[in-house]
Design goal:
Blueprint lengths: L8 H9 L10 E4 L4 E3 L13 E4 L2 H6 L3 E2 L13 H4 L3 H10 L2 H14 L3 H12 L3 H19 L4 H7 L5 H12 L3 H6 L13 E6 L7 H10 L6 E4 L2 E7 L4 E8 L4 E7 L5 H12 L5 H9 L5 H6 L11 H10 L5 H15 L17 H5 L10 H16 L10 H9 L6 H12 L10 H10 L5 H8 L6 H9 L12
Helix pairs in contact: 4-5, 7-9, 8-9, 15-18, 15-20, 19-20
C-alpha cells in the first residue's frame, strides 16, 4: 500500500469489484448516480466503474455532497493504517484529531500542538485528505453521534453535546446530511432486540479491525504486565481505567473472531470518541496485517513464524507518559517486580475511582503527582531513582511531551539525553507508547535468544543489519520473535 491510494483508479475499481475488506479505511467509493459513499467491501452489487469516484476520507465524501451507505456503514470501518505508520505532519494531525483535540481546542490548538501555523496544517490536510481539520472533526462527531443513538437510550439533546456538537440544531442537520436520516429515524431503524445501555455513561460497542488478528500476544502482554488496581484480566476481558480529558473511564475489551467487544463506562460522555481512539491505538486495530506479514515473510527464517500465527499486533498503551514511567520501573527487573513497583505508586499517588465490578481502584498517577514524590521513599537503586525522578519532572514541566503527535526521531533524541535511558528503553517507548511500527530492540535478551534459535544473527549489530529487510515493520518482527518463548506475555490468560 502507499499514500494516496485513492488516486490509483484501476486498483480501487478492482478492490471494489472483489469486495476486498482489506481496503476498508484506505479509501472510500462515492457513487455519482446515487450520491452515496461506501467502503470497498460494500455487499451491494458494485456500481459501474464510470459511476465511481474515490476519496481518501469519509470527510472528503461528505464535503463533496455524498451520504453514508446504510448497508455497509463506511463510517464504522477501521481507520486508515497510514496514520499509525507515518510520523509526518498529516499523520500526526490525524492522530490528534482522533484524540479529540479539534473539538476541545479548535484548529489553533491543533496547530499549536504540532508546531505549525493553522494555514500550513489546513493546506496539508486538504491536499492529502480532501478535507480540512474542521471537516474531519465533524465527520468524527457524526460517527460518535450515530454510535450513541444506536447503543444508548440517552435523549437526543444529551447525545448532541456528548458527541461534541455546539447545538442541537447543528447535530440534527449534520446527522441528516451525513446519513440521510433524522436522529430519531436512525434509532427507529434498529431492531427492538438490539441491546442498549440504560446505565448513564455505560456503552457496549464493537471495534472493527482488519483480519487476521492474533489476540494471543496482544492481550497476553497487556494481562501479564497489568498493574493491580489499574488493569486486570477478568472473564476473558482485559479491563483498565482511563484518564480522559473531561473525566475518567473504565474500558473492558474482549477479543472476538471478527471484532473486539468493548464496554465503556465513562464519567462524562464527551470522552467517548477519545476513549474509543485510545483503545484502538492500544490494540493496534488500524494496522494492515496483510501488508506487514507479506513483508516479513520475505525473510525465509521469519516466514514460518508468520505462517504459524499471522496477524500479530503491537500491544501499545492508552497513556504515553504512563508507559514511559513503567518502562523505567521495568529496567533490569522481572515482570512481577515491575508490577509490584507500579502498584505501590498507584496505591500511594493514583486517583481513586469507583468500579461497578469491583476489580479496579485507581487511575495511574500523573507525572505531576509522581514529580512531587520524595525520592528517598522510592524503593529502587539510586541510579534508577535518578532516572525516574528526571523523567517525571521533565514530563510534568513539559520539557518532554509524549503524545499521539510526538515526532518520533526528535522524541528519541530527547529521551536518549536523560540519565539511565539507553537504546532498549527508548525503543520500547517508541514501539509501545509512540506507536513507531519500525522500532526495534536488538539488545533485548528475548530477541537475541530467539534469533540464535532461528539461525538469525544474534549480535545486536549483525541482527540490525539483517533486520533492514523487515523495515518499516520491525516492531512487528519483535512480536513474532518474542512469541518463540513460553513467557506469559505470549498467551491469552486461561
Amino acid at each position: 500500500m502507499q499514500n494516496g491510494m485513492h488516486t490509483d483508479r484501476e486498483r480501487c475499481v478492482r478492490a471494489v469489484q472483489s469486495k476486498d475488506a482489506r481496503f476498508d479505511g484506505w479509501f472510500f467509493t462515492a457513487v455519482l448516480t446515487t450520491r452515496i459513499y461506501c467502503r470497498p467491501s460494500c455487499p451491494v452489487v458494485p456500481p459501474k466503474p464510470q459511476n465511481m469516484v474515490f476519496h481518501p476520507s469519509a470527510a472528503a465524501c461528505q464535503q463533496a455532497g455524498f451520504r453514508a451507505c446504510k448497508r455497509c456503514r463506511p463510517d464504522t470501518s477501521p481507520g486508515s493504517p497510514e496514520w499509525n505508520q507515518r510520523a509526518d505532519l498529516v499523520a500526526r494531525a490525524m492522530r490528534l484529531i482522533a484524540d479529540g483535540v479539534v473539538d476541545r481546542d479548535g484548529v489553533p490548538g491543533l496547530a499549536a500542538r504540532l508546531g505549525y501555523s493553522t494555514r500550513q496544517v489546513e493546506r496539508q490536510l486538504l491536499a492529502e485528505l480532501g478535507a480540512g481539520p474542521l471537516a474531519l472533526a465533524r465527520a468524527q462527531r457524526a460517527q460518535t453521534a450515530r454510535l450513541l443513538i444506536e447503543t444508548t437510550l440517552l435523549p437526543m439533546a444529551e447525545i448532541a453535546f456528548a458527541a461534541g456538537f455546539s447545538s442541537i440544531r447543528t447535530f440534527n442537520d449534520t446527522v441528516r446530511e451525513v446519513f440521510a436520516l433524522a436522529p430519531s429515524e436512525l434509532r427507529a431503524r434498529l431492531p427492538k432486540t438490539t441491546p442498549r445501555a440504560a446505565t448513564p455513561g455505560a456503552l457496549a460497542l464493537r471495534l472493527p479491525f482488519r483480519t487476521p488478528l492474533n489476540p494471543d500476544n496482544l492481550f497476553g502482554h497487556l494481562a501479564a504486565t497489568a498493574v493491580p488496581g489499574v488493569e486486570e484480566w477478568r472473564d476473558g476481558a482485559y479491563r483498565r481505567t482511563l484518564r480522559l480529558p473531561y473525566g475518567h473511564g473504565i474500558a473492558s475489551l474482549t477479543p472476538e473472531p471478527d471484532h473486539i467487544a468493548c464496554r465503556l463506562t465513562l464519567s462524562d460522555l464527551r470522552d467517548l470518541p477519545v476513549a474509543i481512539s485510545r483503545c484502538r491505538r492500544m490494540l493496534d486495530l488500524d494496522a494492515d496485517p496483510v501488508a506487514i506479514d507479506d513483508q516479513l515473510r520475505t525473510d525465509p527464517l521469519l516466514a514460518p513464524l508468520v505462517d504459524k500465527a499471522p496477524g500479530r499486533r503491537v500491544p501499545r498503551t492508552v497513556d504515553e507518559a504512563e508507559f514511559a514511567v513503567r518502562a523505567v520501573l521495568g529496567q533490569q527487573v522481572s515482570t512481577a517486580a515491575a508490577r509490584t513497583h507500579a502498584a505501590r505508586l498507584v496505591t500511594a499517588h493514583g486517583d481513586p475511582v469507583d468500579d461497578p465490578e469491583g476489580g479496579l481502584t485507581h487511575l495511574f498517577p500523573t507525572p505531576e503527582a509522581l514529580a512531587a514524590v520524595a525520592p528517598e521513599t522510592l524503593a529502587m537503586p539510586r541510579t534508577r531513582r535518578t532516572t525516574f525522578t528526571t523523567l517525571v519532572r521533565q514530563l510534568a514541566d513539559g520539557s518532554i511531551h509524549l503524545g499521539p503527535e510526538s515526532d518520533w526521531p526528535a522524541t528519541r533524541t530527547q529521551l536518549l539525553a536523560l540519565p539511565g535511558f539507553g537504546p532498549w528503553t527508548v525503543d520500547a517507548i517508541a514501539m509501545r507508547a509512540l506507536g513507531d511500527p519500525d522500532a526495534f530492540l536488538p539488545t533485548d535478551l528475548g530477541i537475541r535468544r530467539a534469533a540464535q534459535e532461528l539461525g538469525l544473527p544474534s549480535t545486536p549489530a549483525a541482527l540490525t543489519a539483517r533486520a533492514a529487510a523487515w523495515r518499516p515493520w520491525r516492531a512487528y518482527a519483535v512480536q513474532y520473535l518474542w512469541a518463540t518463548e513460553s513467557h506469559p506475555i505470549n498467551f491469552l490468560p486461561v
